[in-house]
Amino acid sequence: MKSERWLRIIPVALIMYTISYVYRTNVNMALTPSISSLMRDLLMDNRMKGEAAGIFFFGYVLMQMPGGYFSTRWSPRKVISLCLVGWGVCAVACGLAQTFRQFEAARFLLGVSESGVYPSMVVLLANWFPSAERARANAFWNLCQPIAVVVTSLTTGWLLGHWGWKQTLVLEGLLPFLWLPIWWFGIRDHPREAKWISPEERQFIETTLERERASLEAGPRASLSQTLLRPSILVMVAVYFLHNCQAYGCMAFFTDSLNGRGYDSMKNGILFAIPFAFTAVVMMLVSWHSDKKRERRKHLAAVYLFCGSSLVVSMLVKHHFWLSYVFLCLAIPGPSAALAPLWAIPTETLPRSMAGPVVGFVNAFGNVGGFVGPYLTGWLAKEYNGSIVVPFSVLGVGMVLGGFLCFLLPKPALSAPVQGAY
After folding, report:
1. pLDDT band at 421 (very low <50, low <70, confident <90, very high)
2. Which of residues 250 and 258 earns the better pLDDT score?
3. Domains, the chain, with CATH or none
């Protein structure tokens, strides 16, 4: 029987989070001196560029655990609605900034406004998709990342070339307000609240999730603080920290690898978009295979080891532009492809009441890498006369280390396939 969940929940969530990723991509395009005057206008050097790109993630850590807590005990739909309003205001403020400090403050507050979204979405998907479907559900809505980069790099490249960075950031900052009504009326927190779902499918979801919940909650109960301090959770934080160091360090300085080619903003946008278009394909393959095998750790390790090694190799052959670019295209998909199996682990190894706060905890402290990656890359690039060879190599080695750490993550408690899945 056809499942309406995939058509009702995933597209609305996908577009919602795609909009949030616009502001992680457009700032990196706007901070490229060859296609935008933002750095000149705000008197920024490479170190300040890395700081401006990364400070978003200092704000991003603040509401992660509260977002997971309130989405579990209140409503993920309402938490995300409030976030949509907040990040729209802050995104527009980035385009209105007159100084570096104003721009930096707006980026920080943008991170605060978005920080409750990810744990709330993980909770929402866990309310709708049993474990046998969860990696694919996570992968479908996380397609927002490569889609946002592909679409934003092309549209932002065109807008920057015709309108300038201020108008571009303000116009793209209006998107959350346009999507808010669709999110509010299109999403429900639980199957029992949705009028469009069939009684048979509702019964299947509720029965399956209740059986999984009972399995996870059997045995001794631990407090939230005890759960957060488990070695496996701390390892997950370390893995996700290294994950974000590469993801955002590479994104912030990827266009620097194109310097000296003489390309205009549109061609730079196309070259920026290609590896992220490839990312979407890799994400779906990894999530499908992870669900098919009901295995998470080995999939994570394989993705991280491959993408980290590819990034190092791309720097070793940097003097051959197109060969280096091919290896960069192999390295860029890694962090996004790892998201589906990574975020399936907490909901498959922890009681439902703990999963939301733990996701917020891991996402909060792991996303510090979103600041450290761009900042470290910018600092090292400045130290090495603008070259990205050393900083990108450091990011690649960190990702390889993350791959080995994956073998210390917990195995899912739910191992039996679900019968009769929609």
Report:
1. very low
2. 250
3. 5-190+202-211+225-408 (1.20.1250.20)
